[in-house]
Amino acid sequence: MKSLLGHSRTRRLLRALLILALAWLALSWLVVLVLRFVPPWTSAVMLERRVGAVVHGEKDFRLRHRWVPWNEVSPWVPLAMVAGEDQKFPYHHGFDFDSIQDAMDAADDGRRLRGASTISQQTAKNLFLWNGRSFVRKGLEAYFTVLIEATWPKQRILEVYMNVAELGDGVYGVGAASDVYFGVPPGRLGPEQASRLAAVLPSPRRLHADRPSAYVQRRAAWIQQQMSRLGGPGYVEGGAPARAPH
Predict the structure, then answer these.
(1) I need a surface site. Which of 62, 120, 130, 231 has the fewest CB within 10 A?
(2) Nearest CA-CA partner of 126 in 45, 47, 9, 185
């Protein structure tokens, strides 16, 4: 009798866990589907930064964010971000396996750990997750990346990314960054300004687009070269060449 009761409880527990898992899958996909059409009013990384400011008593902290639709942003901005962060973005399905392999080889050789996250992965992390390097977070990042790539067109992924990416301490998205750093609408940003925004993405709280260090200037110059090599704004607007860059 006790054995039967134990099996019954186990079945009920497994059934409840299955229902919870299915509910999680359905809810997470529904959120991603809604965000294909509705601008996110905030993101997980913005909420994390707000909480961190409160916990550390940063009384002067101010979070700046303003959503700007694709057609109101200079075409140089998405191109600069792709040139600097993920040149294979128009071609991959969320993951750049060549870059992942290169990063693993570098780690095996004892060299400095290289980032291998695509713009799709960074969008998933910024929007839904927290900063960190745990396996749990990376697993969830991969899950949301698959959902985003399956649900959103490439232009939407890039539109959300350039609106939620951290571009300075408390400065999120191209709308706020263009106001704070250059004093112009995002639609009037030129190639040099766009490349400087993209240049700070590896470390936006340490690097400054308005007061560029020698490193930022060198990286911005390299990004502008890559923007030219990719063929200009058409690369991210449907006019990309037939083959991905090597």
Answers:
(1) 62
(2) 45
- Residue pair 94/120 in contact (Cβ under 8 Å)? The answer is yes
- 9-53 tens-digit pLDDT: 778 888 888 889 899 899 999 999 999 999 999 999 999 999 999
CA 54 to each of CA 130, 142, 166: distance values in angstroms, whole numbers, following the listed order: 17, 30, 18
Nearest one of 46, 66, 198, 41 to 126, comparing CA atoms? 46
- Residue range 40-236, CATH number: 1.10.3810.10
């707000």: which residue's tokens? 50
Q: What is the Cα–Cα distance from 14 to 6, expressed in whole angstroms? A: 12
How far is residue 184's CA from residue 20's CA, in Å, rounded to a whole number?
48
Domain boundaries, the chain: 1-35, 40-236
Q: Which residues pair with 65 in a beta bridge?
A: 172
pLDDT for residue 202: 85
Q: What is the pTM of this model?
A: 0.87
Query: 77-116 pLDDT, tens per residue?
Result: 999 999 999 999 999 988 877 766 665 555 455 545 545 6
Distance CA 24, CA 134 (A): 21
Q: Give DSSP secondary structure letters for 34-96.
A: HHTTS--S--HHHHHHHHHHHHTT-TT---EE----GGGS-THHHHHHHHHH-TTTTTSSS--
Closest CA to 219 of 240, 239, 204: 204
Q: How far apart are CA 68 and CA 60, in angstroms?
A: 26
